[in-house]
Amino acid sequence: MLKRTRGSVLLLCLVLCASCASNDDVAVIEAMTDEGPALYTDTLTALEGEMAQVAMTRAWSGSYFSACTVQGVAIQESDLFLWVFNGRSRHYEVHSLDAKTGARNWMVDVGHKNLSQVPMAGDRFVVCLLEDGGGMVVVNRGNGAREYSMSTRVSQVPTGPAASSDSTVYLNSLIDDRVHALNPATGMSGWAFRTEGTITAGPITTPRLPRRLVVVGTDAGEVVALPPRAWNESRPTDAAWDRSVFGDVSGPISVANAIVGEKLQVSVLVPCEDHGLYCLNAATGEPRWVYRTAHPFRGAARALGGRVFGRNERRLCAVDLATGDEAWAASAEGGAPKPFEAALAAVAADDTRAYLWMGGKKIVRADGKTGAFVAGANLASFDWIVPGGENNVLVGVTRDGHLVAFN
DSSP character for 325? Predict the structure, then answer.
């Protein structure tokens, strides 16, 4: 546990390592031991101290649950979702917190079955898909109220999380590999749309402005955007737009928002097997830019602090969201990789610093302008380190419900 106490010699070593690391990327990596420091007798204080080895300023923290075990956690836009098992009621619950402040938004009891997918938030709904054919629970995003029955049976077998509009739930079905528009009250399928290839990414919904669309990607090199027709309307005969790329869509599609002038600019980020990371205009599908490397891209790309962080088979790439130019200079092909390129993903970033996930529980703080390592720590006492999105926070969560967030 975190109640062990170590001597002042170890504390001095940690301080010295942090000092050396500011000038030496290798020293930062070597300072990340397999255990956390465990310097305190209070659990929450210990967790804060552990995260303070690498993070800059505490944003919020607390012990949020009693007699509950956290099952999973995710951040979407400004919402932090946690799903937990309540040992008293023997039910599963979904909790929503404000990711920037830690304030509680709402809690909903979803019954005896755990979630099978990450809860997905739209403008109006949060859709929670349940395991073992348990259907779905659809709640109001603002207050957690169940606008329909406790749980709704689903006539399809979802292959991933469900997106939603104000009136409809959208998911990809394993049964027929089509995008289905579901009635949120009954779970029955209204219309369905088939793509040319097998859907490998999505569906996601883009923001209402400038134009809401339902977007998927396939292994046939398609990115397809459908008009968000309600489940009880006619099936779209054609896509709102479709974009051909030169390989499989090889990772989840994500949305990037930017304010250009006084207008919101919405883009769709698409990692591709053709060695390209695509930034597409969400309204038209036209490329804003394509960043190409010598290797296929893998996993989701994240827009953080005006940059896009995506990883190909060999390295992490940092690209300017506005231009597609390199934000951090990459190593020469065939040359020695730069330390930041070994990171698996970026967790939070701004102009000052970026938090990079190095695998396991290891987090590095890098200079926001160059990617040079400044400090590093193995946050071994946390069970989850959560990407904070545009909330610009590094969030650590334990299974017993302790949450710590640093800027």
Answer: -
